[in-house]
Write a structure and sequence with these properties.
Elements (H helix, E strand, L loop, with lengths): L4 H13 L7 H6 L10 H8 L1 H7 L4 H7 L2 H8 L2 H18 L14 E4 L15 H16 L3 E6 L7 E4 L5 E4 L10 E3 L9 E6 L2 E12 L2 E7 L7 H5 L9 H21 L6 E5 L6 H8 L6 H9 L2 E4 L10 E2 L1 H15 L2 H6 L12 E2 H7 L3 E4 L2 H10 L15 E2 L6 H4 L2 H11 L10 H4 L7 H29 L4 H9 L6 E6 L10 H4 L1 H8 L5 E6 L7 H11 L11 E4 L4 H10 L2 E4 L11 H7 L3 E5 L4 H4 L5 E4 L7 H24 L9 H17 L2 H13 L3
Parallel strand pairs: 1-2, 1-9, 2-8, 9-10, 10-13, 13-14, 15-16, 15-18, 16-17, 18-19, 19-20
Antiparallel strand pairs: 3-4, 5-7, 6-7, 7-8, 11-12
């Protein structure tokens, strides 16, 4: 059905033949990430070898089955209860693969090609850095669930994104770990001749060769290009080494492999997309390869229009770092030979400028994508307004309101991010097959009938599970960086399952403003050491070149000398998808305080809502259209040119809410120990945010508003 099917089956067969016969169905499951959003999927693999699953293979099922000791596998093969669960999981995944495809704007013969620089499918596939990639992973999963024919196109980074270590001063250090693709749930795609499928991309003076790997995300194949081949030069091999490589020339080369190479790879694989969806500007160079495909039929304007008819584009950020530009020398130095495909280097440069006639203006991928797509969208209602004003100069003669950029507000893949006790509770109350109806408000109406005692018990259990994790991670993180023993031990004994737990975890860009907590250290310490106290959990990575963002963590660490901090506040290192899942499930309050209007959408708070967490957020991004006065707390989202004054005002607003509303409400208990007002707000949050910010709603909007030609 899709290119690489035979390669997947061969890999499954090889793995199956290496394990005991009763466990062989696990080989097929291991090569399909659909297991990762099945209720029992992860638990089945964990049951084979719990310690290895958690501590050694990083929840990678292929490595687990290939590396587990034979005696361990034999013992698992004799566990009749486990074999019954394997059989049930196999039946679930087989039934899922046999469902009919959606009758819509794409077919299996002509699928949507979703192109992105990163994909956060699962923690065991390290080709993501943050929100953009996690959203891309959720989109592939939801496409699989609803039966939308889609293929993903990305890059297989051999060292992925960096890993993080924090020293005793709070300074971030980065390191990278090599990944062997042969140990991942992916296969090298081969052609009819049995040889690996490759494409060539002209970069600088070289023709860089890229091979193609396939990862199955349910029914959606994700094709990943990889240039780490012996026939390439050292520079060519490095192109797909690191995600968001700091070297600007290498980044341009990555965009060429993703865009031009991605289009060529799909053509070589026999995939003819109905639509190319460029998720952020990184794949935009693909339009030149699509243009070259048009040949000489029609004039230049007609050929360009035919390309535009096949391309849609999503912009994800108004922050300059997400819309970087390159000067003439940089572009032509790496991409000059791609420019020659168009026959006109000046036209090539002009396509990426806001003002095509300004030869001194640098070129950027976002401008190129906007100019070359038939439909463009932002990722929240407010971001749409910001994007239209931001890119109005690209459309001279139009007012900002008339700029052709719409919006599809982000959503999250509910089966991935809803787990544990809350998943069990909602499964019992929302009815059979409710996840397929997660975008409908009526699906969530039964939440109103769930007893306060049940909801509070679920939240208490989730908090306890998080506290157990934080206690373990805090001690190990502190010991690793050489903290004093008493400070390290306090991380394991100070956190309590009965204490209000506040989470702040996301990419540590300065506009996310983690530093608001440190602007008023006396108030922060008073909360942590108060009676009753609160406890804070922080996590996040700063880009290696963002020294200002790194300084934010150092500000936080200046408070660690206070006696109350050691056991009530922790910064957890190396934030990733698995850690994010624990945090959004267990935190009582999820804090998000970006500088408005720079938060395009954000999705971590949506995930927290699914677990019964409550939002305390600036009215920016998705929260600007979610907050209704009864489903969380809000800080004004007004724009203020005096950033320092705004920071102090918002810091005060944050602490005012925590001190005067959040903490008292959490401890306002009835005779049974249940905080009735708090639970009422949880109900409201689930019923309003659940349907609005599900990936099901998001993907149906993409189908109706973006993919379908109106």
């Amino acid at each position: 059905m899709f290119a690489g099917d035979l390669d997947i089956e061969a890999a499954v067969s090889d793995l199956a033949n290496a394990i005991p016969e009763p466990l062989r169905p696990l080989a097929r499951i291991a090569f399909d990430y659909r297991w990762s959003w099945s209720v029992d999927g992860a638990a089945v693999f964990e049951s084979v070898d719990p310690d290895r699953w958690t501590r050694v293979v990083g929840h990678n099922p292929v490595r687990l089955l290939a590396e587990a000791h034979r005696s361990t596998l034999e013992r698992a093969a004799g566990d009749q209860s486990l074999l019954q669960r394997i059989s049930a999981l196999t039946a679930e995944l087989e039934a899922d693969r046999e469902r009919p495809w959606l009758d819509g704007p794409a077919t299996v013969e002509h699928p949507i090609a979703f192109c992105c620089a990163e994909f956060g499918v699962h923690g065991s596939l390290p080709i993501y850095s943050g929100g953009l990639g996690v959203l891309a992973g959720d989109i592939l999963k939801e496409a699989s669930d609803i039966g939308l024919p889609m293929v993903g196109v990305g890059l297989l980074y051999r060292t992925g994104y960096f890993h993080q270590r924090i020293d005793v001063t709070g300074f971030q250090h980065e390191y990278w770990i090599d990944t062997d693709p042969n140990s991942l749930p992916c296969v090298r795609v081969t052609g009819p001749d049995g040889l690996p499928v490759t494409v060539s991309v002209p970069i600088d003076d070289d023709d860089v060769t890229a091979q193609v790997w396939r990862v199955d995300v349910g029914r959606v194949p994700l094709y990943l290009l990889d240039t780490d081949l012996p026939q390439n030069t050292a520079v060519g091999r490095w192109v797909t080494s690191r995600l968001y490589e700091s070297n600007r020339a290498i980044r341009l080369a990555q965009y060429a492999v993703l865009g031009v190479g991605g289009v060529r790879a799909l053509r070589t694989l026999g995939v003819e997309p109905s639509v190319y969806h460029f998720n952020e500007g990184h794949p935009a160079l693909g339009v030149f390869e699509l243009l070259a495909d048009q040949g000489t039929v029609g004039d230049e304007a007609e050929r360009l229009q035919r390309v535009r008819d096949k391309v849609v584009f999503t912009t994800h950020t108004p922050v300059p770092a997400g819309n970087e530009t390159y000067d003439r020398g940089e572009v032509l130095g790496m991409l000059g030979r791609i420019a020659d495909v168009t026959g006109d280097r000046e036209a090539f440069l002009a396509a990426g400028r806001v003002d095509p006639s300004n030869h001194d203006e640098p070129s950027g991928m976002t401008a190129l994508a906007l100019r070359s797509s038939r439909h463009a969208n932002a990722v929240s209602r407010r971001h749409g307004e910001v994007a239209r004003a931001m890119w109005q100069p690209l459309f001279p003669g139009r007012s900002a309101d008339d700029v052709p950029i719409g919006h599809v507000t982000n959503g999250v893949h509910v089966p991935t991010w809803l787990g544990g006790p809350m998943r069990d509770l909602l499964d019992r109350h929302l009815g059979e097959g409710w996840l397929a109806r997660a975008d409908r408000p009526e699906t969530w109406e039964p939440v109103g009938d769930i007893s306060s005692a049940e909801l509070w018990d679920v939240r208490t259990t989730a908090r306890r599970q998080l506290v157990d994790l934080v206690s373990q991670r805090a001690v190990s993180d502190r010991l690793r960086r050489g903290e004093a023993l008493d400070y390290a031990e306090a991380g394991g004994t100070g956190f309590s399952a009965d204490v209000l737990t506040i989470g702040f975890a996301r990419r540590l860009a300065t506009y996310k403003r983690l530093h608001l907590v440190a602007l008023q250290p006396d108030r922060a310490l008073s909360l942590i050491g108060g009676d009753p106290p609160v406890q804070f959990v922080f996590a996040g990575k700063a880009h290696p070149n963002d020294n200002e963002a790194k300084d934010v963590v150092r500000l936080l660490f200046q408070m660690k000398g206070s006696p109350s901090v050691a056991g009530r506040a922790a910064f957890l290192e190396d934030y990733d998808i698995p850690l994010a899942g624990h945090l959004v499930a267990g935190c009582d309050v999820w804090v998000n305080v970006p500088r408005p209007p720079l938060e395009a959408s954000g999705t971590s708070g949506m995930k927290s809502c699914l677990g019964g967490g409550l939002q305390l957020s600036v009215l920016d991004g998705w929260w600007a259209e979610a907050y209704d006065g009864e489903n969380g707390w809000a800080i004004d989202g007004d724009i203020d040119g005096d950033q320092a004054a705004q920071d102090h005002r918002h810091s005060s607003a944050l602490f005012d809410l925590l001190e005067q509303e959040v903490l008292p409400m959490f401890h306002d208990r009835d005779a049974h120990g249940v905080p009735e007002r708090w639970v009422t707000m949880i109900r409201r949050s689930l019923m309003t945010n659940g349907p609005l910010f599900s990936a099901t709603r998001m993907m149906r909007e993409y189908i109706d508003k973006v993919y379908r030609r109106i």
